[in-house]
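Researcher: Last one for today. Full complex below.
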Amino acid sequence: MASNSSSDRQRIAQQRLRIIAGHLQGPVDSDSTILAAECKAQGSKTDVSSERKTVPRRRQEILKWNGWGYNDTRFLFNKKGQAEFTGKRYRLSGMIIPALQNWFEGTFGASMQHKSPAMPILTSSAVQPPTLNEAFVDELKSTGIPFSHDAEDRVFRGHGHCLHEVFALREGKVGRVPDIVVWPNCHNDVVKIVELACKHNVCLIPYGGGTSVSSALECPPEETRCIVSLDTSQMNRILWIDEKNLTAHVEAGIVGQELERLLNESGYCTGHEPDSMEFSSLGGWVATRASGMKKNIYGNIEDLVVHVKMVTPQGVIEKGCQCPRMSTGPDIHHFIMGSEGTLGVVTEVTMKIRPMPEYQKYGSVVFPNFEQGVACLREVAKQRCAPASIRLMDNEQFKFGHALKPQVSSIFTSFLDGLKKFYITKFKGFDPDRLCVATLLFEGDREKVLQHEKQVYDIAAKFGGLAAGEDNGQRGYMLTFVIAYLRDLGMDYYVIGESFETSVPWDRVLDICRNVKARIIQECKDKGVQFSPLSTCRVTQTYDAGACVYFYFAFNYRGLSDPVHVYEQVEHAAREEILANGGSLSHHHGVGKLRKEWMRETISDVGMGMLKSVKNYVDPKNIFGNRNLI
Amino acid sequence: MAVNALYSHRDPMLKKRDDFEDILEERRNSSDLKYALRCYTPVLYKGVTPCTSSMLKSMVLQSDQLHYVINQVSKETGKATDDVKEEASAILEEMAQCLQLSTVRFFAFTLTKAFKTLFRSICVNEDGIQRLQQAIQEHPVVLLPSHRSYMDFLLMSYILYTYDVALPVIAAGMDFMGMKFVGEMLRMSGAFFIRRSFGGDKLYWALFSEYVKTMLKNGFAPVEFFLEGTRSRTSKSLTPKLGLLNIVMDPFLKGEVFDVNVVPVSISYERVLEETLYARELLGIPKPKESTSGLFKARKILSEDFGSIHVYFGQPVSVRSLAQGKVNRCQFNLVPRHIPRRPGEDIASFVNDSAYGLVRAQEENMVLKPWVLVASLLLQHHHQNQAAGQKRGIALGELTAQAVWLRDLSRQYGAFLHWPDHIPPSEVVSSSLTLHRGLVRVCEEKVQLAVEQAGGPAGPGPHSSVAPEEELLSQAVIVLSCASYRNQALHVFVRPALLALAIHTASSNQKQEVFNSFSFLRNMFSNEFILCPGATVQDFEEACYLLVKTGALQFTQQEVLVTERGHSTLAFLSSMLDPFLQGYQVVCRFLCEEATETLTEKQFIPAVRKFIKKHLLADPGRLRYMEVLSSDLQKNSLAALLRLGAVWKMKGVEQEMLKVNKVMVNSLEDTLGGKLPTQKAAVARL
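Model: Here's the assembly. Have a good evening.
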């Protein structure tokens, strides 16, 4: 290839990096190349990539132990009462968000005076000493695979990011946590660990990015064996790229942003961007059937995976070729995808890759009401012209998004904002308490993008939609990454909340949104929550036959003796409501232990039997004993 | 049980009820015109999509449901879809309401005039109105008034207009449409018209249900209909009809709305306008067809005093909370919701249970006037005297004393009794006698039913000139009218009365025996009274509780003992049910003795009526109760026998024939008469 085009590619790569991939502002290695790294454990000492690990073994060095994301990044209310976002990593970092306090106090009835701070550090006395299987530990030592039974390391791997998990950590409460953490460096390391685990009957729980919101990482309290957390974070290399077939073979511990960054350097991308992509891992995506924001172009994980290698107690399972499609009985990938760590550890994955898009454009549309918005999305899906991403926020979320607008520097922009608002509410007669907004992301050839954009806006216009600018759209997507940080802010002021998702046929979308939101409000009232909760939703994905809906729910828990229990009851009721309204148990978060109770009605008795018999064959001793799913 | 949520019987004495306000009082002191023209701005449902009556129609015609059914009908009948569509739109035209405020104002004006002359007061519980208003704002609302008179729905709209509450749309029977002009007036005041029967007509059903659902879901207006389906001619609540209730619950069950609130409304008339009309109808004296001129003629009633009306708006009932744990809403997940399907078993029984619970909620809040108690007492005396061959009435003083006794008893049973405590009981009794002077005679301080020939005061002259059958019927009119007042109190006494009867008929005092007997009677009479399905044990316990509480019964480990003072209570209670008991027995006897092989359902009432008349005339001593002439009672007993399998229907050449299992009917009759122990009857039922 001409050097010219390769520098071109690099230019595009850098541009793209600025836009997406976690909005990181860290320096980018300009001399990176495609690497065919060998497994370190096999003795290679010249592994360049080891220098650039995004996630170190001691995660607590860069990540919060009792909250979301990076240590250096958080929301806080400063002395003036203004909200601020610290750090340098995100677009919003270092900015003042003037409207947030008002919105926060108004929405939740919270007050700056009533703080509920977290325990600053973990007291190691709160952590039970590890139950060690000495024979296992001895043999593990002899393999040279690094491991630890340090309290902090163990605690970090004993939880995901469910509300109850984080809430407990903030209070310094720690339940059953893994007894050992091991860091395999490659597939073969994993094979050895699994062999040893089987030999000594210890329980293995795979750990990827730790972003689970289904209690999947919780150690079963009834587990008496030694629990070993198998942390795949060090298996994070791209082993090869096949430009002929547009595939990349990648170790499963790589996290999303790193995968995109490395591929971008070669001018490629996977296009798989779940909201958690900064921290979640490839193996985790496979194990939970993840979905990415841009699935309309690139597909969900099941569409992206060409080949998977998984280590099970019975040995390694993989297909014998890298073919695009096969008719060879039930697809074994579908035993692996969504297995949630109950059958084995995914170690290597061959994924489809695409040349990086030449052009990206954000956009947004304002609709007079949510009903019109949903009708528009439905039409877009019908015409199969959905942009890379299209999301529809309801009115409450629109207001929430508004409250997160950073301070504008120029009078001109604030004047323009005022003008826009005037045009929409006064001139077009939109009711500010009913209107809602769709955010759009287009990707591809410049020309096609513009053409596509026009098509979508034309459809929107038929449903009363008004184009509302790129800025609104872009901010919408940025919020995806910072919203998890906001929960930590809420928890500093007696506000707890969470999001959960479902998928639902088109004819049910409006009904499910209305009913679940109303159910949340009613349940909160019934459970003695003093202030009406925030109960909001958005439609985040469109399919031919339905959509994915996300609910956000948060409330002020002052006056409640057991807020987490109340929270869990409300979430439980909300899930019942979802199921009663024809929604699924999960679109992409998975089942874990949190939603296990509904599995039988979701997949039928026979379905349960099938899953169980697979488990019984693959893992009769329940080595992979996280007890998720079934 | 759904019933529990609506109705729980701890101590009925503790029931909290709201106070009443008389809405006529203000009308008497201010301009009617001003009232009719006043500013009317009701609070609407928060999720309301504003639309007009004609938009509603097109929404219905364009709905997925209609599309589906139209295509289906066109496939089945071979008609072009456009033709079916046209048919649909014509049906909808015939059905739809077109609520207009101007018409409502017209009614507000004229009804005020009429009400002021007819009634002393119209009392409404304002707290109930407040609750209703709140409910309307939050959820689609269904209003379920009791149905005793044609006036009911005009009265409802009138009250809601008065209180600035959203006006309802009302499901009305097609028979109103027969009345020229009035039909259209009613339509413009919010009535929509349904054919009485449209059994297999898919298109009609689809249109009708979709029309109701569309109005409900969009919060267009509260939907009002009569759970009892028709006016009760006997003042007893009727077994609920489930069709419309199914329809209004459907949007909730299918998740189309978050919740639906159902508000039972109890309308109690001190004197029902249709009083004697009903009695005549029950006796088979044909009813005049609804017509405008008939209505016009009826204006002579304007000169009479009909006492007061009490309207009690009950607690709104959330369908969501009723359905909690009883209905699996996931059953709608696998088939598109617009495809009509027979409701699942859980839904059918849920709707049925709810319907009974709601009717009981209506009964609960029915206001009872002292006259109701007086009428009950007078009827019993009438029958006792008749048996004894006496023609003398009861002394006023004794009647008062008994009325006071019954007042206290009914209060202990939780009756919603409006007995003015500040007035001496004798005055209370005599003023209610005055109001109902058409039904009673007071002569020399003796009170009796006015069953003597209406031609004059018991003179010997005209007596002989009247045919005995006619005399029988005119006596029966009085008795049935009186019974309709007694019936108002039946829901208070029915459970203890069934127990009293059970103790009377049971072969021993063993608890189990008594329960068996109770359960047999309850089962037998479950088409007659509102007895929630499957609540036998509950009802038994409630009856025991009440009778023990009032000191009439005592329970030992095994036995049920009647106390010294309990005998009179039990005698009163069981004789309350005696007419029904005898009615069912006589129907059984008819079926055994006279039912021919070719008896059709249509012929049943005339035939049984003839049979009873014959016996009443021939042997008045044996058949004491003229109430057995009531076609309502006869229909109910046939329904019970059909339900129990003692009679069944068989397809005949033209009509369905009634086939009788004479052995079983015989044994049922004997068991009712206490001649057979209940187990035997239970076996016979199998």
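Chain B touches chain A through eleven residues (CB under 8 Å). Chain B has 29 helices and 16 strands.
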